[in-house]
């Protein structure tokens, strides 16, 4: 081995261990970055020289820097992120919707319905008493106000969800574009582009928060699809999502999909997970259904009372008077009833117009209609517009129970999904996370090797100096 | 051997701290509000029953008011009938006195004058109003029931019933026509007194004797009406007791459904607080253990 060979071998070692310490430094710097996948250096022994029939080693070089990524864990993490997005959206909005029904305070619809029928019971005891009759109108007005409040709050909640859907779509499109851009950058990169791959995985998870995705990482390219197979990023093609107002759904939006100039198609029903799925479910499956049942209650209260009231006689002997304004004939019959319910103009400011008597001859002391209306409260065979049979309080109680069950289930699902995601995050941290202790040991090891190589150069230099001095002298 | 990333313990501690803090907050709420049901999702399976029972509490309050309203009306009716009964006793005594051929003209005049006054008093009582309502007019409660000479009945024979529980109505009026005018086979109290005046003035012993029998029947009519009101009072007493018992039962049920068990809730809060403090302490210890610490 020549003396100068020592310089070359040591220099290559210095470079290798310097690079390795750089990787350690990068790992330590990213030790608290949840999206970072730890990097590992691979060394290779350089092929030896053949000097005079003797094999002489040429030292070491940095063969590669790789990431420790477990594809199965990454896939599970992405799937779990999608589930969490869906469950978070549901839990957030259902919890908010649940608070609309301010019943526990005692000033909600339960109390107002009971007070309304109580006022008819009181009126039946004193049908001639205008003050008692006015109390019926007051109780009805209070109940109507609460129907209006709940209806408006539900509509607002649905509009809020709708707004979030509208705002989410540009973000999804932006993430899709970023993934496509990263694909191209990774293809164009002269290195393994490890940080770009980390960023692409982060974006896939960000995408998964919104919508169900599956992906295929092949070489430098990542193809992204929805779980129903619609391509989202396919080589250079990037899908575009958009929103279109649906006039059949209270002018709320549907989600449309197109790619490569294809005609946009409604995919609202095809979204299987992610926040968008949770938002659509909260807006339509839950809040929409609650709205319908609230409408049905308002419609049925109004029509049942009107049926009795219009058959009665008021203090002037008039009959055929509605208590509540009759609803327009639409389908379903209870459409928008909670928003529209109001007192009929004939009775709204005129207590004497209340028809409490069963026939004209019984005025003013007749209370047959008042008793019949009061008795409706106890009836369990009230026919609701949707075809169900229940009492008024039973219908309302069932709706509250449904709201409670849905909210509790959404929260429970969220807790479960969060636990699963937490566990997967821990697994990912075990697999791909940086262990600072481990890195410090590596640092000591690489530092020692680096220092030893440096010492070799110094020794070779010393030997060389000795030789030169001997020649000179 | 599985490796552990440095972030693992921190992440684990963070996850548990968040969970334990949330659990601690949730454990606080029942103690702060005194209720285990603060929103439908707290007890979805019980919420429908809870509000149904709360509705019943409100209804009991209304039925109590109805009992009070009905009792006032029954009491007024009964006390009026009682007064009329007393006046009829005097009519009966005057009729007995009037059936005497030895009475002087002055005595006869006094008797007939007193009988005329008594009829007026009875008419006034029969036209008794409670507020704006004529008590004996039936459904025609704004119409004065007894007017004119001879007296005619302007009301109707409908009886007023007041709903005092979800299944029970109590009668709070009597049939003015039947009680005072003899509708349905009785005697007309007003005609009887008028006839008494005429017969006494005419010293018609046979007629007066027959009219004394009618006065007795009139007293029976009043007593029968009073018995009806007594029955109503009994019905109201029963309803009041039923409502009181129901109120206790429902209040107990509402309490079971919604009220917090303070001892259990306090113990639960203590446990959650202990768990939270433990997880905070563990997190601190975990973060201290790093190789770097031993180099320093």
Provide structural commentary.
The complex is a heterodimer of chains A (473) and B (296). With 473 residues, chain A is α+β, with helices and mostly antiparallel strands. Chain A has helices at 3-29, 71-98, 109-125, 130-188, 194-210, 275-310, 337-340, 345-348, 368-376, 392-432, 436-472, and strands at residues 39-45, 49-51, 54-56, 60-67, 214-218, 221-225, 231-234, 237-238, 240-246, 252-258, 265-266, 382-383, 389-390. In chain A, the strands form five sheets. In chain A, strands 5-6-7-8 form a four-stranded antiparallel sheet, with helices on one face. In chain A, a hairpin with a 5-residue loop joins strand 9 (240-246) and strand 10 (252-258). In chain B, strand 3 (146-147) and strand 4 (152-153) form a beta hairpin. With 296 residues, chain B is mostly helical. Chain B has a two-stranded antiparallel sheet with strand order 1-2. Chain B has a two-stranded antiparallel sheet with strand order 3-4. Chain B has a two-stranded antiparallel sheet with strand order 5-6. In chain B, helix 2 runs antiparallel to helix 6 and helix 3 packs antiparallel against helix 5. Classes of the chains: A alpha+beta (473), B mainly alpha (296). At the A-B interface, helix 3, helix 10 and helix 11 of A face helix 1, helix 2, strand 5 and helix 8 of B.
């Amino acid at each position: 081995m020549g003396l100068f060979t020592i310089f070359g071998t040591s220099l290559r070692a210095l470079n290798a261990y310097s690079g390795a310490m750089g990787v350690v430094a990068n790992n330590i710097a990213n030790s608290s970055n949840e999206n970072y996948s730890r990097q590992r250096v691979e060394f290779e022994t350089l092929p030896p020289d053949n000097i005079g029939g003797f094999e002489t080693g040429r030292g070491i070089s940095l063969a590669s820097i790789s990431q420790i990524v477990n594809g199965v864990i990454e896939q599970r993490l992405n799937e779990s992120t999608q589930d969490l997005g869906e469950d978070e959206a549901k839990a957030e909005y259902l919890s908010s919707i649940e608070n609309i029904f301010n019943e526990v305070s005692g000033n909600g619809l339960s109390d107002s319905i009971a007070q309304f029928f109580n006022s008819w019971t009181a009126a039946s005891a004193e049908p001639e008493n205008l003050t008692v009759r006015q109390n019926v109108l007051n109780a009805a007005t209070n109940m109507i106000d609460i129907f209006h409040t709940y209806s408006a709050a539900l509509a607002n909640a649905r509009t809020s969800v709708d707004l979030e859907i509208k705002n989410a779509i540009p973000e999804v499109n932006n993430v899709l574009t970023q993934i496509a851009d990263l694909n191209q950058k990774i293809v164009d990169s002269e290195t393994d582009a490890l940080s770009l791959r980390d960023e692409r995985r982060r974006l896939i998870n960000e995408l998964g928060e919104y919508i169900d995705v599956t992906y295929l990482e092949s070489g430098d390219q990542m193809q992204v699809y929805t779980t129903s197979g619609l391509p989202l990023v396919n080589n250079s093609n990037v899908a575009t999502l958009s929103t279109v107002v649906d006039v059949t759904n209270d002018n709320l939006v549907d989600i449309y999909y197109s790619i490569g100039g294809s005609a946009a198609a409604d995919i609202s029903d095809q979204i299987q997970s992610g926040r968008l799925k949770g938002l659509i479910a909260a807006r339509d499956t839950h809040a929409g259904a609650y709205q319908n049942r609230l409408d049905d209650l308002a419609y049925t209260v109004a029509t049942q009372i009107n049926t009795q009231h219009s058959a009665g006689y008021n203090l002037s002997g008039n009959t055929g008077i509605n208590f509540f304004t009759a609803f327009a004939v639409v389908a379903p019959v209870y459409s928008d009833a909670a928003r529209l319910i109001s007192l009929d103009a004939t009775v709204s400011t005129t207590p004497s117009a209340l028809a409490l008597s069963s026939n004209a001859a019984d005025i003013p002391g007749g209370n047959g209609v008042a008793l019949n209306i009061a008795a409706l409260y106890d009836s369990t065979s009230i026919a609701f517009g949707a075809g169900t049979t229940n009492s008024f309080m039973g219908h309302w109680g069932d709706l509250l129970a449904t709201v409670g069950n849905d909210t509790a289930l959404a929260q429970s699902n969220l807790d479960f999904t969060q636990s699963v995601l937490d566990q997967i995050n821990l697994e990912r941290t075990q697999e791909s996370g940086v262990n600072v202790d481990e890195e410090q040991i590596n640092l000591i090891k690489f530092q020692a090797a680096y220092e030893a190589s440096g010492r070799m150069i110094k020794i070779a230099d010393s030997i060389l100096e000795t030789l030169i001095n001997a020649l000179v002298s | 051997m599985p490796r552990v990333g440095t972030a693992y313990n921190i992440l684990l501690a963070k996850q548990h701290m968040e969970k334990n803090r949330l659990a601690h907050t949730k454990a606080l709420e029942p103690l702060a509000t005194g209720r285990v049901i603060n929103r439908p999702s707290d007890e979805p399976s019980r919420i429908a029953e809870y509000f149904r029972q709360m509705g019943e509490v409100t209804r009991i309050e209304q039925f109590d008011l109805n009992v009070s309203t009905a009792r006032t009306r029954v009491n007024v009716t009964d006390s009026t009938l009682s007064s009329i009964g007393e006046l009829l006793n005097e009519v009966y005594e005057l009729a007995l006195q009037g059936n005497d051929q030895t009475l002087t003209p002055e005595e006869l005049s006094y008797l007939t004058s007193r009988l005329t006054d008594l009829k007026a008093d009875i008419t006034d009582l029969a036209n008794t109003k409670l507020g704006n309502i004529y008590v004996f007019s039936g459904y025609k409660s704004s119409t004065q029931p007894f007017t004119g000479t001879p007296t005619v009945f302007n009301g109707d024979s409908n009886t007023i019933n007041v709903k005092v529980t979800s299944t029970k109505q109590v009668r709070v009026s009597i049939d003015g026509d039947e009680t005072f005018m003899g509708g349905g086979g009785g005697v007309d109290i007003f005609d009887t007194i008028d006839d008494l005046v005429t017969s006494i003035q005419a010293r018609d012993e046979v007629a007066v004797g027959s009219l004394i029998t009618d006065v007795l029947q009139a007293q029976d009519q009043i007593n029968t009406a009073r018995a009806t009101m007594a029955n109503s009072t009994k019905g109201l007493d029963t309803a009041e007791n039923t409502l009181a018992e129901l109120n206790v039962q429902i209040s107990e049920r509402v309490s079971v459904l919604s009220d917090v068990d303070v001892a259990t809730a306090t113990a639960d809060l203590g446990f959650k607080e202990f768990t939270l403090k433990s997880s905070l302490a563990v997190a601190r210890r975990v973060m201290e253990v790093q190789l770097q610490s031993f180099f320093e």
